[in-house]
Amino acid sequence: MRMLRVAGCVRRSLLVLVLPACIASLASAQPVDRGADALLAIDQHRASVVEHIVGAWGPALAKSPARVSIDDLRTRLAGLRADALLAASLAGTLDGLREVIGADDMSIAATKPGLSQTKALGDSAADVVYTPVTPCRLVETRGTFPAVYQGNGSASHTPVAFTSNQIRTYTLQGGNGVCLTQLPAGLNATAVQLQVFGIPTTSASGDIEILPQGASFGSTATMVYVATIPFNTVSTAAKVNLANHQIGVQVRGGGAHVAIDVVGYFAAPTGSGGKFFMQGGNAFGTTAVLGTTDNQPVNINVNGARVARYEPSTFSPNVIAGHANNAAAPGSGDGNTIGGGGASGSDCFEPSTGTGTRSCGNKVTGGFNTIGGGRANVATDEGTVAGGSSNTAGVESAVGGGVGNTASGRWAAIAGGANNSVPFGDFATVGGGDTNTANGDNGTVAGGTGNTAGGNATVAGGALNTASGGASTVAGGIGNTASGGGATVAGGSSNMASGQYSFAAGHRAKATTTGTFMWADSRNFDFQPSVGNFFGVRATGGVGLTVAIDPTTGGVTQFCNLLPGVPSWQCVSDRNAKENFVPVDSEDILRRLVAMPLSTWNMKGSDPALRSLGPVAQDFHAAFGLGTDDKTIAVSNVAGVALAAVQGLHRLMQQKDAEISVLKRKLEAIEAKLGM
Q1: Same structural domain, 230 and 151
Q2: To 10 degrees, what angle do helices 15-25 and 82-90 make?
């Protein structure tokens, strides 16, 4: 019997396929160092081992809640390390296999060959890994061989079999020291890989169930033992009670002796400082859990480099992803998030000094900050930086992106661009552009370059513009200044609106007095008022007003122009622009004009010394019926009345001249008769 057993086990080409049988036959012998030979055989016959596992478990796994297809299983197994593949080959239950390949009640998408290797989260020095060990006897109820727990576990090692439905508890550390080398006292194992032997003690069959200590037994079976077989065996992965590192074993049925070998474990290595665990869900909707049992940060590494860090907190954890240089400053509060980005070194651009002295990692200080990505970004006290580089968001402020932007004011925002800043002031905004500054409450610079907006002021764009007056505005242009309260510069260049409620536009228009509107043309001279509340226009090419056009052609039909060299307005009076002509009785116009009152007067509110002469609109309208109403008089109508009156006066003079000529001839005839 022994020779056949050894001969069967030393044939390495069939090692994995016959390994469970070999272990069963070795149940009555002391453990030997088989770990190295087993892993070597796995690598030498990987393809055969994979197909053996696929054939044994593929259909059942595809129908399980994990829904791992046979092709997925084959790909996943092919990428396993030798130790994990060994554990998979030893799996005696579907749950055990799912523990090894990481398919615990979760749908696994198809993966590409070479990309599905089962690894720790990334850091072999800190994360959960599967570690095979030289098989060691943890439980031996027969008391015949050295084990951590011999017999009934008492000091006398009394060989006592399990009776029906009996439960015994075993600690994974301690006992007589047989397994202390493989399972050190400081180990934080979350699960162990076991080889379980059931040796029936009656003619009745039964089953054995292994669960974390304190769990409820009776719903599943780790193995079923058959009374007609002296040694029943199965390989399984068993979870552990994380609080006391114990497992519970129950035997049901006719009763049996039990031997249990530990062949590997899932845990953070001793000294890692963490208690990382993976807890699967089930078909009844339990959420799968990935986490730790202590209050220490967890790093996720790839290829030896950190790619994510989770820092526990009383209220809200910090989540730091991206480069390992990304960090929450020591003593920072809760709820910080860095989504990614970051780079090594400390030679990135520092906006405050214009030098390359800033850390290239993304940094947060205080609580509830967010940095989406980029590099060398800083967020402080609920600040947000979406991305870009060398951006800084202060208290409850936000920077959307760009480079070298700094939002220090509370609730301030910079959408992007470069080297823009909000050094102080609440609710200030810079939309973009370059080197723009909003330095007062509610100040806004929409874009452009080198623009500055003070409190409640706005610069829409352009370059080198300044809106420093309260509620002032510069719409654009270059080199414009709106320093008066409520002042506006519409655009152009070198304009200034320093008077309150003033307006300037064009070139070198200076609205220096209150309520003044100044527009200047391209002549390179200042144009400014001498009084307040003045409307001034410098238009050396003339001024034109158009009030009507042809609705079909768009041609001008009614306009007035004030042109250089002409001392008055010229308004259209083209015959072709007029219609409905009615001749006038000029003598009648003269009579009405003579009858119309005339007086001198001054406008209400003006200086009484500023006298004017003329009719009032009511008398003029009553006399001639001209104009739109009896409150206004058109200058052209006054001129028309005057011209008509001149014509009427001319006719009267002609009549008088004719009468005088007749009288003169009569007088001459009388004088002739008298001999005078």
Answers
A1: yes
A2: 60
| Candidate from 293-307, 581-595, 635-649 with smallest mean pLDDT | 293-307
Could you tell me the residue range of the domain that residue 242 belongs to? 129-277
Helix (H, G, I), strand (E, B) or coil at 463: strand
433, with CB counted inside 10 A (0-12, 13-18, 19+), is buried
110: nearest Cα among 59, 135, 73: 73
Q: Are strands 348-350 and 149-150 parallel, antiparallel or unpaired?
A: unpaired
CB atoms within 10 A of CB 314: 8
Pair (147, 85) in one structural domain: no
Residue 656 lies in a domain: yes
Q: Provide the 8-state DSSP code for 275.
A: -
Q: Is residue 665 part of a domain?
A: yes
The pTM assigned to this predicted structure is 0.60
List, for residues 376-398, the tens digit of each pLDDT value.
999 999 999 999 999 999 999 99
Q: Is the dihedral of CA 371, 377, 383, 386 positive or negative?
A: negative
The verdict on residue 139 lying in a domain is: yes
Say if residue 93 is in the same domain as residue 137: no
Eight-class DSSP state of 27: G
Compute the average pLDDT of residues 122-137.
67
In a shared domain, residues 21 and 159:
no
Domain check: are 573 and 591 in the same one?
Answer: no
Q: Does the CA dihedral 602-607-608-613 come out positive or negative?
A: negative
Tell me which residue has tokens 């043309």. 521
| 490 part of a folded domain | no
Predicted confidence at residue 178, as pLDDT, reads 62
Q: What is the pLDDT of residue 17?
A: 37
Whether the Cβ atoms of residue 364 and residue 319 lie closer than 8 Å to each other: no
Say which residue the tokens 């020779």 belong to.
Answer: 3
Shared-domain flag, residues 142 and 253: yes
| pLDDT at residue 529 tops 80 | yes
Give tens-digit pLDDT for 196-219.
Answer: 999 999 999 999 999 998 999 987
Residues 9 and 89 both lie in one domain? yes
Distances in whole angstroms, Cα of residue 265 to Cα of each of 8, 136, 237, 248, 332: 27, 12, 8, 16, 37
- Give yes or no: residues 268 and 135 share one domain: yes
φ/ψ of residue 647, rounded to 5: -60, -45
Q: What is the pLDDT of residue 66?
A: 64
Q: Rounded to whole angstroms, how far apart are CA atoms 572 and 567?
A: 16
Q: What percent of the chain has pLDDT over 90?
A: 60
Q: Model confidence at 85, in pLDDT bands (50, 70, 90)?
A: confident
Average pLDDT over residues 516-530: 97
Cα 323 from Cα 338, distance rounded (Å): 10
* Tally of domains within the chain: 4
For residues 413 and 426, is the Cβ–Cβ distance under 8 A? no
Q: Is the pLDDT of residue 6 over 50?
A: no
Q: Is the dihedral of CA 132, 134, 140, 146 positive or negative?
A: negative
Task: Please list, residue by residue across 337-356, b when 16 or more beta carbons sit within 10 angstroms of its beta carbon and e when fewer do.
Answer: bbbbbbbeeeebbbbeeeee
Q: HSE on the CB side for 308, CA within 13 Å?
A: 9
